[in-house]
Amino acid sequence: MHPLWADLHIHTVLSPCAELEMGAPDIIERCRQEEIDLIAITDHNSARNAKALIEAGKLAGITVLPGVEVQSREDIHVVCIFPEIEKALSFGEWAWGLLPRIPNRPDIFGMQLVIDAQNNIIDEVEILLVQGIEAAVDEIIRKGHSMGGLVILPHLDRPSFSYTAVLGILPEDIEADALELSCRLSEGEAEAWKKKLPNLPIIRSSDAHRLCDIKRKCATPILADAPTFDELCLALNGERGRAVLWPWVLDIDLRI
Questions:
Q1: Distance in angstroms (rounded) separating the CA atoms of residues 201 and 181
Q2: Which end of the chain is more exposed for a tag (fewer CB within 10 A), N or C?
Q3: Using CA of residue 131, residue 133, residue 135, residue 140, what is the dihedral sign?
Q4: CA 125 – CA 112 distance, rounded (Å)
Q5: CA 216, CA 34: separation in Å to the nearest integer?
């Protein structure tokens, strides 16, 4: 079993709110510098840049999982992560079909660029991606699971676009696989949230929109045999010796 670092919430230049520096080789190089082993690419309502990151990650030995951050009808964000690019793209097409046809305004919201592994621009999405699709949060969770994905409720401590901010208390039977807290929380603040959310594993991710957002202290340490989707599932479930470690109390280098 090995200690690994995972950041399961990173945006690219496909998300209009992300900086143009969030290209494929740039994100991977930043992860290499920060010694992060496993990442998920989770652009808003689309998985079209995941393939570029997967290819760039292979050259650096960093595992990239394809995902999507979907915005529900209630304006709740849901991160869905998949084992294969085909499933992520199919899930993204489902979300795309439920997205209102409101044109993007690059001068206001930012550009939405589809790139390859070398940062060549191969397309630009003209429909605004940062808006709610015509599906409720529970429907998105069920859809993500039905397509073999992991479902994470992100940034629960934030005052907007989180389940708790919109709907209040998280139901005990919520069918998510993990809950994400922002890495900006202090250890004490994170512990307080943990007491309020005892039923599911808690991770922290960068929700990176800039390269400088990607750093190990915003990732989650896990015990696993390899940086893979299957091992991540085992860690989230605490099975066969795999585990998600509590990020806020591990101020050590797990590689030593």
A1: 11
A2: C
A3: negative
A4: 5
A5: 6
